[in-house]
Amino acid sequence: MFGSVSCASQPSSSDLSVLFQNDGNWTTHATKPSYLFVNEPTPRHLASETCAVYGESLADCEALPGLSQQLSYQEFIGAIAESQLFWVASSNATVAATSNGTLVQDQTGNYPVICTNTAPIVDKVDTDYSVFPHVNISSNGTTFEGLRDHIAFRFAGIPFAAPPLDNLRFRPAEPWNATDYVDATAYSPACLQYGYFAGNSYNLNPWGNSEDCLYLNVYTPYLPAAASLVNATSNREPLPVMLWIHGGGSTQGTGSDLTFDGAGLASRADVVVVTFNYRLNIFGGLTLNDDVITGNYFTSDKIVALEWIQDHIRAFGGNPKNVTIFGQSSGASSVYDLIMCPLAEGLFQNAIVQSGGDGHTESAENAANSIAPYIAALCNSTGTERLACLQSLPAETLLNITHSGVTLWRAVIDGIYTLNYPLAQTGLGRQFLNSVNMITGFMPEEYQSLGTTVLAPNASDFSVALDTLVTNSPSLSAAQAGAILASGLWQISNETYTNGSIGYTNVYNASIRAATDGFMTCAGAELAMIGAASWSYQSMWVYQHSRAYALSYYDFYDLCTFPVGEPETPYYRCHSGDLYEVFGTYYIFDQPLRAPEDIFYTNAVQDMWGSFARTGNPNVPSEYLKARGYESTIAFFANWTWPSFVVYDPQVAWIQYPGPGYTTLPDQQQCGVIQPYMTTT
Asked: How many separate domains does the chain show?
């Protein structure tokens, strides 16, 4: 369909924006109108030709009233002048019109051009990208060829580091050796792993797996004019950049997981979203506690990705001086790793930690001791000789060690990338951390999904259930289980509770809550308090989600979401239940709209995350919301403000729609029972 424009030979000399009014209703994304805005003063006789360059036609003037909100926002950000005229079509003629569609008798002016955008939407994992129109941008001598879709521009499979193969295996990442041209029209393979993204058995990863996996993806609603062209113009400020670090226990996952497709968030929040792969399991985390195989290779990957952003993101519409790192689960732990890492200084300004616990750092000695017997069986030598042996082995041989579950593959204290445990280093104050504004938060029942099927919902004996968790999961120690039983704080009640309750209506509820506290919540709450008490961050904001939507493939026992049309049905707000809400990617996985509040809640979360990326503050300015026509979030903030988290007033945002509120750090009395038995991590 787009064969005539599938190979854009030159980067655009004009600012390009996709105009799409993202109201959050994912069920109608594909049918909502979308337009391509070419923001360059253009004479009338070239207007139609300008659209044709992109394989499009002039938009009909009757479309302009529906574009009023998008054009109002362009005026709000200074991209166009007040009362700007545009070239559009009327009865097959090129005409000048105002933003409300009023035709103006002007044949001689030079105005921006509004074109159709007939590009498809990405609405499934195995989307056929061959039918999408192409777009080129240039950065530092490299042309990147990407795609335009229905709601944003996307560039996939961009190399950001040298392939970690051969003598670069088990070595810190090295920067990408730039080339003249990068084909960014297809996703790259995920890193080597077991689990959901090993091959495509779960229909999540049609791109395969490879040890050569250090690639990133960029999603943006705006591409600036090519700076290398003499007549280039740029009428707006660069956008905030949000670098997403995927979770998966540092053993599985990929930045190309379309749960994290950044087009929706980029469109709604007007940001540039970057997702990327980093080495996993043994390839990213092997340390043998010597000065040769030192570990933290996955941390080096993340730093090199951030350095790529500094070098190239402006060409994609992003501001390299306003970068937010955000992640969930082990990706959130990686956010802590980067905040503590001296080598990452100055590469980001804001950080969001979603269900990150306390960072999960390991001593190099413990990590090496757990893996040493497996390595000795393959390469019974030391130092550089052992490294050379390991570099010569087939990748699958090394991956098999990962499958044994021998270690958790955490960041290790090496004195280079990681200096100390997060609790200890955070307690030293902001002079020992990279300067950031911080958001951190929790899901109420994290361990229901984290625990997979370790514990059955029909568990009837609390003591037996705790013993099962101790034996078959890392959530609780035997000492913690004993303290929980002795405390009497986890009483089983017959009372029926609503969705917002944290009461323990049965043994399973109490057990899941205890495991959640022991594995994640208590440690995360302690780190938040230490951060506040030590003034470790420029600003700090803490939340608890009170609404969740389970991932399509990550809902054991079908208990992490409520049925369609039954929002009062009790359910668990599980680990990863916030990911669709942050990225708005329900439609890619054909997820139903359970209730209208799903839309409004997702809108509020995306608007707050975007505001934080712009300003370091999640409270969205009302004038911004009005300019964008975001009525549901205007209502969300009508009688509420997210309070900053400070040690003398540690308020937590209780996020719900409608009616957000305030709470405190969760389960602090219970944490007082569990924490004395926690080991340093």
From this structure: 3
DSSP 49-61: HHHHHTT--BPBG
Beta bridge partner(s), residue 154: 147, 219
From CA 520, how far away is CA 574, in angstroms rounded?
A: 12
Residue 97 β-bridge partners = 86, 103
Is residue 11 in some structural domain?
Answer: no
pLDDT tens for each residue of 472-488: 988 899 999 999 999 88
Identify the residue whose tokens are 């505001």. Answer: 611
Residue 9 in any domain: the answer is no
> Is residue 497's pLDDT more than 70?
no
Helix (H/G/I), strand (E/B), else coil: 583: helix
SS3 of 670, please? Answer: helix
In 3D, which of 279, 278, 417 has the Cα closest to residue 359?
417
| Strand 86-90 relative to strand 93-97, pairing | antiparallel
User: What pLDDT sits at residue 69?
Assistant: 94
Write phi, then psi, for 501 (nearest 5 degrees): -80, 155
3-state secondary structure of 121: coil
Query: Around Cβ 194, how many Cβ atoms within 10 Å?
Result: 17
- Token pair 């802590």 is at which residue? 336
Give the H/E segment covering residue 375: helix 364-376
Amino acid letter, residue 638 = A
Start-to-end CA distance of the chain, whole Å, equals 55
Copy the structure tokens of residue 426: 């955070």
Burial 58-67 (b: 16+ CB within 10 A, else e): bbbbebbeeb
Q: Compute the average pLDDT of residues 73-86.
A: 94
Is 580 domain-assigned? yes
Token pair recorded at residue 585: 């990617």
What is the token pair recorded at 617? 């503050």
* Last residue within a domain, chosen from 401, 435, 469: 435
Report CA 481 to chain centroid distance, whole Å.
Answer: 34
pLDDT digits (tens, 9 = 90+) for 644-655: 999 999 999 999
Report the SS3 class of residue 586: helix
pLDDT-derived band at 455, boundaries 50, 70, 90: very high
Q: Which residues pair with 39 in a beta bridge?
A: 15
**142: number of Cβ within 10 Å:** 17
CA dihedral 667, 673, 675, 676 (to 10 degrees): 160
Closest CA to 665 of 479, 529, 474, 496: 529
Residue 216 φ then ψ, to 5° = -130, 170
User: Is residue 630 within 8 Å of 569, Cβ to Cβ?
Assistant: no
Question: How far does CA 354 lie from the centroid of its chain?
Answer: 10
> Among all chains, which residue has been given the structure tokens 């101790």?
470
Domain boundary among 418, 435, 452: 435
For 377-497, where are the alpha helices, taking DSSP H only?
383-392, 395-403, 422-426, 447-450, 462-472, 478-487
For residue range 270-308, list pLDDT tens digits in order: 999 999 999 999 999 999 999 999 999 999 999 999 999
Strand partners for 326: 244, 352
CATH label of the domain that carries residue 70: 3.10.100.10
Could you tell me the CATH number of the domain that includes residue 489?
Answer: 3.40.50.1820
Tokens of 442: 């929790």
